[in-house]
Specification:
Elements lengths: L3 H12 L13 H29 L6 E11 L15 E18 L3 E14 L4 E11 L9 E13 L4 H7 L5 E12 L6 E11 L10 E12 L1
Antiparallel strand pairs: 1-2, 1-8, 2-3, 3-4, 4-5, 5-6, 6-7, 7-8
Helix pairs in contact: 1-2
Amino acid sequence: MISSTGLYSFILFITRKREFNYARFPQTASSAVSIFLAKAAIILLVVFFAAPLQAGEEKEEKLYSLNVYGGKLTTNNWEDFFGFGKKLNFENSYFTAVAVSRLIGRYEKKASFEIEGQVVRHFNWQDHWEINALVTARWESFFWDKYVDTSIAFGLGPSFATAEPEIEILTDGSTSRFLIYWMLELALGLPEYPNIAFITRLHHRSGGFGLITDKGGSNALAIGIKYKF
């Protein structure tokens, strides 16, 4: 197995200058270019074939994840996303979000626990910012993981909007800038690229069955990318 140190040493060996007897072996411009291209090809091949090996030998778990995603708001309840209610009604209201999460605990190799902070920017119909902080539980053990690395996560925490969201007023008649937030995430990735995953999220704000307020709430469907580091 090729280690990262060995790979680096090999590249240095290939690229370093050597002394040639140019009287015996005259080096034309074309031959110099050929040598350079040959070295470049060797390096690319070594890096290409060594990358999966290095990924396999690096067992250190990544503590952080960067999530970048975008979504579209609906006037539906969250149950509707699972086929238990009305047809999904998407509005002309969008958002982009950046979220950073940190691993804080693990149960064997099956489940993990994270904390996450989100910054969300709404645009088109709505024009405000949204800040969410949550604690997340993630289930990571599925029998098909050797083909498609899969995890499902649920996160819960407080949510603050810089203005009362118009979608929430349309849906319930009134709302509050402070609400409860939760999200449900499905992450899918390839086992040979463990640090990158495609994600889809159900993005939810609500009064928590009257805990914060009796009215107000919204649901959105989002897709994006997760990068572990």
